[in-house]
Predict the structure.
Amino acid sequence: MRPWRLRHLRKSASPAAVLSLTPTGCEIDIRHLLPLLREPRLVVHAARDTDIHGRAACASASCIAPVPIGPDRVLATILFSDIVDSTEHALALGDRLWCDLLAQYHVLVRDELSHFRGREMDCAGDGFFAAFDAPARAVRCAAHLLDAVHSLGIDIRVGLHAGECETEDDKMVGIAVHVGARAACVAQPGEIVVSSTVRDLVAGSGLRFGDRGIHTLKGFVEPWHLFTVDLASARL
């Protein structure tokens, strides 16, 4: 079996590619997203597949069994950002200068959101809530936001999570929104923190991450595995 496996790998990829792709493939787990699929679906598995047993296909099919149609829900990547030490900045600048800085900040953020096809959902002072239909674009947008605001002499922190949200009066609500907001609270100045869901969904995009560990987010019983974005990889 071992010689056969080695021959199989040598024919399909270079040694460097195998070393790079194998750990990534083993870490990807998006089973918790399968129940969110609502379109007609068909699971196909090769009868003579020697790498993956047919039971895996059956397990995947069972995870995406039909569910009752409920409220209008969409799968989105949620981004939350806010200015670090905003109160201190406001006190140091005074009301007029602080309002001017906020106006410039809003322009910068909205320009980046437009460039990366993000949708502004809400803005409260120095905090932005946006949604994207692609997680990799959301991560890259966050990295460019960090760079853009430096021209204003400020830092921001960003949190990202991907999940199903309910759409209500042109707004998005749901647990995924709360997770994104809590991830932003964990982030340090100039840092982007993402959930394991985002990390798994962007596999193969060239984005790299650092392990931020397991966190119990405010309001949640179950812990969440969080990661930081390698900014150099997100600026490409």
About this structure: The chain has nine helices and eight strands. Residues 2-63 form one domain. The radius of gyration is 21 Å. The beta strands are 73-83, 119-124, 127-132, 156-168, 171-173, 192-195, 209-215, 224-229.
